[in-house]
Specification:
Elements (H helix, E strand, L loop, with lengths): L7 H11 L6 E2 L2 E2 L20 E5 L2 E9 L5 E6 L5 E5 L4 E10 L2 E9 L11 E6 L3 H4 L1 E7 L4 E7 L5 E7 L10 E3 L5 E4 L18 E5 L16 E4 L4 E7 L2 E6 L5 E7 L24 E4 L5 E7 L2 E6 L5 E6 L5 E8 L7 E6 L5 E5 L15 E8 L6
Antiparallel strand pairs: 1-2, 3-4, 4-27, 5-6, 6-7, 7-8, 9-10, 10-11, 11-12, 13-14, 14-15, 15-16, 17-18, 18-19, 19-20, 21-22, 22-23, 23-24, 25-26, 26-27
Amino acid sequence: MSAPPYPRARRVRTALAASCATLLLAATGCSLGEPDPDPAGEPPNLPTPSASASAGDQSVVATVLARGLRVPWGIAFLPDGGALVTERDSGRILQVGPESSPDGLKITEVQTIDGVAAAGEGGLLGIAVSPDFAQDRTVFVYYTTERDNRIARLRLGEAPTPILTGIPKAGIHNGGGLAFGPDGQLYASTGDAGDTAQSQDVKRLGGKILRITREGKPAPGNPFPNSPVWSLGHRNVQGIAWDGDRMYAVEFGQNTWDEINQITKGKNYGWPEVEGRGGDKKYVDPIVQWSTDEASCSGLAAVERLLATACLRGQRLWLVELTDTGTVLGQPQALLTEQYGRLRAIAAAPDGSLWVSTSNHDGRGQPAPEDDRILRLVFAGGGAGRS
């Protein structure tokens, strides 16, 4: 695979660490500073930081960028530094930023996707911006209809064109992750839709990670002939991310273990035969597992050697530091525990920060007056997981 499309993350994180001496210092480490100027212009006029937290040697400052959303599910960045955000239940695509408003960043409704049938965990889910957006103005969305889950492409403001249909749907386990890999192909994560037999059947789309072209066809080099399936044996993957050319996914367990897995072409991750580490060589063991009450994570992002996953039931952000070979360094660290309620989407911004959404209006949370929110997180100090 080729190099990732946003190599700025390492430079931004290095610049943040180097500038600690000149920024406001907190007891736990370096606090929030303005991002480096973008080559296209000056940094946005961001709101005042609203909270800080620390875990081990890692500290974070959180700023509320947007308020009053309803179940924001996916976040994908545009070339101008703003982001497209999907709302699961309303079927709306919103643009957040880059312009400012008195309460944060400006929120603009772009359009509502016709045909979205929001129920249970289904609705308008993942979103991905074309790597060639400046030329083709195209985005891709994953959403639930009355008949299925599907992936469609569209130009903003225009009707979507389905490119892959027939992904199984249910009130639970609809998957929904959508992202372009460093190879330029489109990856999607699907759930087993409550039918566990789908996950081990390579001929069915449920319980898989898929890899397709922008036209919805199986991508060249896929492991199974004429199939979009990239990996199988998943229960319900929502978050996917890359550290260089290594792919990772976060997966909901049933009653015992939630997982982060390193995803390899054609491999089987064991569901429903195994939950968590099983020791069976037929299946790939997770690199990290947590009990479901402290995790149940949805979104996943990677910045340099750091994986960050946003958790719903666990109401926290888990940080996992990786070695140069992709193994886990030290112990995962928890941040923001029960500070903002349920956390769902997480995405690495072009400036090296992380954007995270709350999900307190999803029927399982206790929404505060400002919910749901988009947070901007800036890290400083030592790497997560260091002892």
